[in-house]
């Protein structure tokens, strides 16, 4: 599919008003997206586990405008309170997607959004937030064009979410989502995420992700700035190639359930992401001393116990601890005994691989 395929046919009927609600989860990348071209096109393909517990729920109420003022009209409530500092981000997003959802200018909207995870936990809500918002917009579009099929609905929701925040396009469906054109993955696309189309061993079906909240404050460098620093980065081309290769190598690992090789790729991806940050100009470090303490403890525990537990990182100091269902008790015990001491106020979130976004409500 190309961008043009997401331009809608003329709407069949305009409802006067309505209300829709979607809940979308966060996701954690195994092969990381870091570096992009114009229009949120990724410099390399990525793959992620869709999460379950960490999610954003968004409700959009809409009312047909009296006259067409030409611009966007929306109010924004975050956790029940007006949130004006989120408005510019939404305005930018609406500008990017206006051609694909032209009804945006026809309505007054109230957007109410809330996260399942605590505010300022250091967990980025942009992926779940942009996915939930995009799904609500697609729900409205579906009411205007009711014959839309499910596949198109999900693809376009992912397409729109990508234009809000790249990794958000992997937060529409579950449970293993791939995004970015890859020559060996036939249906892959730079425009939206797809369900990983190859065999996946059942060991990956109930994977756990315990998120250790090492640092809850604001990051010093946003991911927008970080992506940008990959332009002219001395190691960029090699890194992008590595991501392509890692996706290739994951194919047999996923099929066979080879956890040793899975761990090698996942941990290497996490450290490479941070290595790219440390070798950018200007350079920066998002890990904290406790991030490294946790990594070292995981390595020591894994080598002594042979329990297949590993870590990954997103663009921050928090550590995602990944392990299969079969070692859940041991892993939780280890986390509580050894790792929780490194979390800010002892806080962590028990999450797991999930099935994707859910419609909560959608009626005229
Ligand atoms: O979606 P963005 O622009 O916030 O970038 C996310 C980048 C990483 O989380 C670091 C990696 C990824 O693939 O999710």
Mean pLDDT: 95
CATH fold descriptor of the largest domain = Ribosomal Protein S5, domain 2
- The structural class is alpha+beta
Number of strands: 14
What coarse outline follows from CA principal-axis ratios? globular
Query: Count the helices. How many?
Result: 8
Summarize the biggest pleated sheet: 8 strands, mixed
* Domain module tally: 2
The percentage helix is 25-40%
Distance between the termini: 30 Å
Architecture overview:
By secondary structure, this protein is of the alpha+beta class. It is built from eight helices and 14 strands. Strand 11 and strand 12 form a beta hairpin. Helix 2 packs across helix 3. It is globular. The model has no long low-confidence stretch (mean pLDDT 95). The structure holds (3R)-3-hydroxy-3-methyl-5-(phosphonooxy)pentanoic acid. The site of (3R)-3-hydroxy-3-methyl-5-(phosphonooxy)pentanoic acid has 14 residues, from helix 4.
């Amino acid at each position: 599919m190309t961008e043009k395929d997401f331009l809608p046919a003329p709407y069949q009927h305009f409802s006067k008003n309505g209300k829709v609600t979607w809940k979308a989860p966060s996701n954690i990348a195994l092969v990381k997206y870091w570096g992009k071209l114009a229009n949120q096109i990724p410099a390399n393909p990525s793959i992620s586990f869709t999460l379950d517990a960490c999610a954003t729920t968004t409700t959009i109420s809409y009312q047909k405008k009296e006259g067409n003022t030409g611009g966007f009209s929306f109010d924004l409530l975050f956790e029940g309170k007006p949130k004006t500092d989120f408005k510019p981000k939404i305005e930018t997003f609406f500008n990017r997607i206006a051609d694909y959802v032209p009804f945006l200018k026809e309505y007054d909207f109230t957007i109410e959004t809330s996260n399942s995870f605590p505010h300022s936990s250091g967990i980025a809500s942009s992926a779940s937030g942009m996915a939930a918002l995009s799904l609500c917009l697609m729900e409205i579009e579906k009411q205007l064009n009711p014959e839309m099929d499910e596949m198109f609905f999900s693809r376009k929701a992912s397409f729109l979410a990508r234009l809000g925040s790249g990794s958000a396009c992997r937060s529409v469906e579950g449970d293993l989502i791939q995004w970015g054109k890859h020559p060996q993955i036939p249906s892959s696309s730079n425009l939206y995420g797809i369900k990983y189309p190859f065999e996946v061993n059942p060991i990956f079906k109930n994977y756990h992700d315990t998120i250790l909240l090492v640092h809850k404050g604001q990051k010093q460098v946003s991911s927008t700035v970080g992506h940008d620093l990959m332009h002219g980065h001395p190691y960029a081309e090699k890194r992008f190639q590595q991501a392509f290769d890692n996706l290739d190598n994951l194919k047999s690992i996923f099929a066979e359930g080879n956890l040793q090789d899975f761990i090698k790729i996942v941990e290497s991806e996490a450290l490479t992401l941070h290595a790219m940050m440390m070798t950018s100009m200007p350079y920066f470090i998002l890990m904290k001393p406790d991030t490294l303490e946790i990594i070292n403890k995981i390595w020591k525990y894994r080598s002594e116990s042979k329990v297949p537990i590993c870590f990954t990182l997103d663009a921050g100091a928090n550590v995602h601890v990944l392990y299969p269902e079969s070692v859940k008790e041991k892993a939780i015990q280890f986390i509580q005994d050894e790792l929780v001491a490194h979390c800010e106020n002892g806080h962590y979130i028990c999450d797991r691989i999930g099935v994707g976004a859910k419609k909560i409500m959608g009626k005229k």
